[in-house]
């Protein structure tokens, strides 16, 4: 079940609002320019699978999403354990293009700082979250990551993250705290 936690920056350990009803999540995020949808896809690819197997298994879904959102660049977030050599996704960053975050299997939390509030979206299999260009965001996979996610961008330049250096992102409740 997808969950939206809405925080005021003054209380990062206590959400002001906790939403579990799909339509409420969609409406609340839409007010902030963030799109959310649940699109069941029927794929069953285990996180941690070999890159070639993943790309073969998601090819049709990837092509569909890239066409639907006008994207030409993508990255696969494929974790079935901690990968310390990778960039810490919990660091707040922005992209110059919209980011389409499509969960193939497992779960991940994407948190977006928009206006006066912070919106933490726990996404699960079939969820598609579109974060607008320039929105401050971070991704939390938890202490024991288990997710396979497609991250799509308009182009290669748009997928380059620019880190804000704002460490307050780590103060907000993450995926393991709920």
What is the strand and helix layout of this fold?
Elements: E1 3-7, E2 17-19, H1 22-30, E3 35-38, H2 51-69, E4 73-79, E5 93-94, E6 99-114, E7 117-124, E8 127-131, E9 136-140, E10 147-153, E11 162-163
Antiparallel strand pairs: 1-2, 1-7, 3-8, 4-10, 5-11, 6-7, 6-8, 6-9, 6-10
EC number: 1.13.11.53, 1.13.11.54
Protein name: 1,2-dihydroxy-3-keto-5-methylthiopentene dioxygenase
Keywords: Dioxygenase, Oxidoreductase
Share of helix among residues? 10-25%
- The secondary structure category is alpha+beta
Beta-strand residue fraction: 35-45%
Could you list the spans in which at least 5 consecutive residues all have pLDDT below 50?
none
Biggest sheet details: 9 strands, antiparallel
The ordered H/E elements are EEHEHEEEEEEEE
**Gap between N and C termini:** 12 Å
Instruction: Tell me how many strands there are.
Output: 11
What's the rounded overall pLDDT mean?
Answer: 93
**Helix count, per DSSP?**
2
Keywords: Dioxygenase, Oxidoreductase
EC number: 1.13.11.53, 1.13.11.54
Protein name: 1,2-dihydroxy-3-keto-5-methylthiopentene dioxygenase
Summarize the model shown.
With 178 residues, this protein is of the alpha+beta class.
Describe this structure in words.
Its EC number is 1.13.11.53, 1.13.11.54. Keywords: Dioxygenase, Oxidoreductase. With 178 residues, this protein is an alpha+beta fold. It is 16% helix and 36% strand. It has two helices and eleven strands. The strands form two sheets. Strands 1, 2, 3, 4, 6, 7, 8, 9 and 10 form a nine-stranded antiparallel β-sheet that branches. Strands 5-11 form a two-stranded antiparallel ribbon. Strand 6 and strand 7 form a beta hairpin. The relative contact order is 0.26.
């Amino acid at each position: 079940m997808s969950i939206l936690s809405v925080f005021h920056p003054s209380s990062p350990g206590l959400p002001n609002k906790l939403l579990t009803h799909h339509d409420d999540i969609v409406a609340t995020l839409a007010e902030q320019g963030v799109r959310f949808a649940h699109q069941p896809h029927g794929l069953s690819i285990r996180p941690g699978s070999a890159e070639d197997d993943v790309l073969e298994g998601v090819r049709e879904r990837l092509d569909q999403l890239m066409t639907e959102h006008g994207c030409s660049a993508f990255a696969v977030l494929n974790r079935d354990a901690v990968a310390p050599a990778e960039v810490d996704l919990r660091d707040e960053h922005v992209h110059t293009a919209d980011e389409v975050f499509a969960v193939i299997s497992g779960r991940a939390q994407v948190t977006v700082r928009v206006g006066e509030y912070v919106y933490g979206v726990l996404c699960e299999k079939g969820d598609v979250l579109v974060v607008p260009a320039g929105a401050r965001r971070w991704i939390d996979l938890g202490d024991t990551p288990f997710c396979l996610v497609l991250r799509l961008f308009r182009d290669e330049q748009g997928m380059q993250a620019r880190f804000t250096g704002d460490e307050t992102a780590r103060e907000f409740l993450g995926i393991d705290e709920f």
